[in-house]
Every structure is written in C-alpha cells, then in structure tokens.
Amino acid sequence: MAGKVTLNRGNKLLTGSNLSRRQEPHGPARTRPGPAGIGSGRGRPRVSSGPKRRIVAESETVKQYVLTLSCPDRPGIVAAVSGLLAERGCNIVESQQFGDPETGTFFMRVQFGALPDTDPDELRGAFASLVPELGLDWKLHDLAERQRVLIMVSKGGHCLNDLLYRHRSGLLDIDVVAVASNHPDLRPLTQSHGIDYHHLPVGSGGKAAQEAEILALVEHYRADLVVLARYMQILSDDLCAKLPGRIINIHHSFLPSFKGARPYHQAHARGVKVIGATAHYVTADLDEGPIIEQEVARVDHAHSPEELVAVGRDVECLALARAVRWHAEHRVLLNGDRTVVFR
Fold first, then answer.
1. Helix or strand or coil: residue 81?
2. Which residue among 196, 287, 300, 337 is the active-site one?
3. Could you tell me the sign of the dihedral formed by the alpha carbons of 34, 40, 41, 44, in that order?
C-alpha cells in the first residue's frame, strides 16, 4: 500500500490515500512544499525521541538532503519518517512513494531542508532507530555532494559529447572526473572540456589487466558512478560484481528487442516502425540489467539502416542523459531486476 498526499502552501490536506487517478495524472503523489509530518496518510507516527527544533524558515540558508528507503509495506511508514523530520525542524520539499503490490515492498524518496547546524550523523542515528521496527533499507544523501562520474567510451562520440555539453552548461549536476577509452580517438573532444583522458587499450595483459586499470581509475578519482557512453567492450562478471548499481550503460536498441551487435540493422531487417535506446544498470548478464530509462522515435519503410543509426544516436543521448541525471539526484531505487524511478 502506498500512501499518496498532496498539500497546498497552507499545508492543508487536499487529498489522502484515496487520491483518484483523475486527480493524479502524472505519476506518484508528491508533497511539496510544507513542514514534515503533515498529511502523511500512513497511520500514527512512531518516532524516536529527539531534540525539539524550530521549523526551518524560508528566509534561512538550509542544507538539502535526500532520504531514500525501501522496506516491507505496512501502515505508518510515512508518518514515522515525516514525524522524525518534524521533530528536528526539517522541512520536506518533495516526497514520493510507491508500494509494489507484487512484492509487498514500499519505496520512498524524501527531499528535505535542514538548518546548517543540523548534525547529519544525528540524523543518520535517528533513521537507524527506525530499522528494528520498520526494517528500513535506507540511505541519506547530502545534495551538496555531487556525484563523481567516470565516463567510458570507444570510438562513437555522440553520447560523450552530449554528456559533456550538459555538464558544462549546468544541465547535468554532476562532476565528470575523467574519461577512459580503449581507443585514443576522443581525446581532443575530452580535453577541450578540460577533463582528463585515459587511453586503456586491451593489450598483451588481456582484459583482466585492462579492467584492473579501470578499477584503479575509479579508486583514484573516487568515482561514484561509471557511465558506459557507447563503450563497446563487455565487462567481466568480476568487474560488475565489484561495482553493483554503480555502472550505467546505454544500449542502442529498445530492450529486450535486438540485443547484441548491429541492432539497427536487425531492426531494419524486421521492418520496425519504432526504434529506441535503453539506459540500464550493468550486471553480469549482458544487456539484462535493471532498466532506468527508454526513449523511442518513429521510423518507416523509407529509412535505410544508416538513417536508423542517425536517428538512434539522438534517442541514445536522451535516454542516457535522463538516466544519469535521475541516478545523480537519487531518484532510482532498485526493485529486484527492475527499478522504481521517482521522476
């Protein structure tokens, strides 16, 4: 069961858990803005005791945090979380939640503001106190700490160029710390943005030696995320296992159709009317990782394979950029082999 609430600026409850689809045309319910703990719609709050804090005023400088959590679904989850935040004077900016009826798992993302003197360790301790009762699997993210991203490419530069442009123009709030490739071709593009470029060919040491260099770069740059922006090498099971949920790939087809090489030529041979691209987390199973985003474009019989490739480049850029942004904003929660994406 997923509680859904909507507050107006006066913090009056407009709708509750019985919010109709006609009133909610754009996905999961959100609460924004308003003090925490009002209109949670999931039962009476049961929260740990904590120091009483004044409510954050709009005129004050605040620190922004995002709390993500999953747990077995039950009444009182939203009330417990929002009550805990209210006790500490935190102000909820945005709240989204989803209860998966198939697995009985509840997912929640809460963005909130806290006073500058709020101790994040005390917040973490407070959330940890809810674990025994609610069985929370939770993370607290400081939005001032941007995701550090290592991009990997081969020869195709369209996705890299798009990500670097969005990063440079402020459309993608990440830190691109370096670019690595098994080819030297995209060094000029990367260095024109003032970003380090590392050429990591698969040499005499084989794939294991090359992947050891990749892991060394991840550690050296303290990368939170690795983005495969048309990196045309299959990662080993060992590398995937060492970076679970931290590698995003863009696959140039609308998965699960047309896996493997030359998907646009496969699509042309089948006479498809829609082509697409899929951004997903990387797992040991090739092209089978949890899907984050997909984008499509309509085509027809007149498109040649080369024209399909050109159209496909555009949808690849869109799907990958969205997936990276949503991951960086902590909007993607893993749900088994699927994802919950709070857009």
1. helix
2. 287
3. negative
Q: Do 174 and 99 reside in the same domain of the chain?
A: no
Burial of residue 235, with CB atoms counted within 10 A of its CB: 0-12 exposed, 13-18 middle, 19 or more buried: buried
pLDDT in tens, 142-196: 999 999 999 999 999 999 999 999 999 999 999 999 999 999 999 999 999 999 9
DSSP-assigned letters across all residues of 287-338: T-SPEEEEEEEE--TT--HHHHHHHHHHHHHHHHHHHHHHHHTT-EEEETTE
Buried b (16+ CB within 10 A) or exposed e, 180-191: bbbeeebeebbe
Task: Answer yes or no: 224 catalytic.
Answer: no
Q: Tell me the residue range of the domain where 269 lies.
A: 148-341
CA distance 206 to 290: 28
Would you say residue 234 lies in a domain? yes
Q: Note the pTM of the prediction, 2 decimals.
A: 0.80
Q: Which residues pair with 64 in a beta bridge?
A: 113
